[in-house]
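Batch manifest, entry 17 of 40.
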Amino acid sequence: MREKIWTWHFIVICLSSFFMFLNLYVTATTFPLYLKNILGGTQQQMGLAITFFVIGGVAMRPFSGQWVNRFGKKKMAVLGSVLFTLFSISYYAQGGIVFFLLLRVLQGMSYSIASTAASAIASELVPDSRKGEGIGYFSMFMSIAMVIGPALGIALWGEGNAGALLLVCCVISACSLLFAAGSRVPKDEPQPRREPQQERKGGQLLSRFFETKALPISLTGFVLAFSYSSITGFIASFTAEIHQSAVTSYFFIVFALMIVLSRPVIGRIFDKYNEHMLAYPGILLFIGSMFLLSQAHSAAMILTAGVIMGTGYGALLPCFQTLAMKLSPEHRRGLATGTFFLLFDSGYGVGSYLFGWLSSIAGYRLMYEAAGVIALLCLAVYYVLHHRPRSARTVGLVRNDSVSG
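Output type: structure tokens
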């Protein structure tokens, strides 16, 4: 009999994560415009609305993983969600650009705590025999939020009512808090602060804040997020430039649809075969979709790119996230989650800034071509940092077994 994934507590933590990321992507789409049109910022300052949030998240990631292990997963999930909601309410103060950017940093820090804890809770609730499938479903909620968020943000901003936008963000944050408070975690005992003796020998500082076994696949995630940042931040501007604004929301819908439809199959492939069966096809699909988007002139081409991209991205994110946790010791999975999202968020933030600069001097088509090249680099990084070392270790183990035999 197969062990059960869809328990009530797993659904609750998935919903908490969904609303957290929904808020993130609603604001990623609208807050650059809010900064410019409501707070009086310049065109160059628009990207700071995303960059400062990412700075806060990245700065907190090393500590959030450590605190999740030390103080307990649920406590940190609730604490992060409470702070996230309070900062959402604080945007009503409208204290100017500096105050707004300070709030973005602080909210990014609270997001880091809450999302790291939620991922660790989900990993704990999923049976080991179906880890790939379970984490795939958990990350599906994040992927759906990544698609619904920009579409919802565009719709809210289209009404021109900043007050309604802020109210919706507060309600979404409160929903995330509500579900985080309702979560239950087995074996959620705080871990001792001191690491085992063997982990304190060499690399002490690095291993205290990062899970080194998760670093190779997390670096691959950095490159993927770098490339993907060109979508959430600039697809609306690109479609407007080519007179296809009406198709923007549909792009995100087909993107999400492919993620949802492919997710059950992707999880089973990961558990039954190996990660390479997902990683290489997923990266190739993602590369192809970027280059197709860069040449798009019609709604059909944009939507086709969305279908291909959703299939590729939908395979890669849960694959990389699951690997980060499976390759790490069980008692350090909170750190592994923090390590993965530290680098993933960093890639997203760096990419948002650099692609914004590139698009301003070279245009959106060249920007998406560059994003395709970055995605191609992801292929090389995955092979060099993950595939080849894992294969070498496997061969070494086989040879040792042969000698012992």
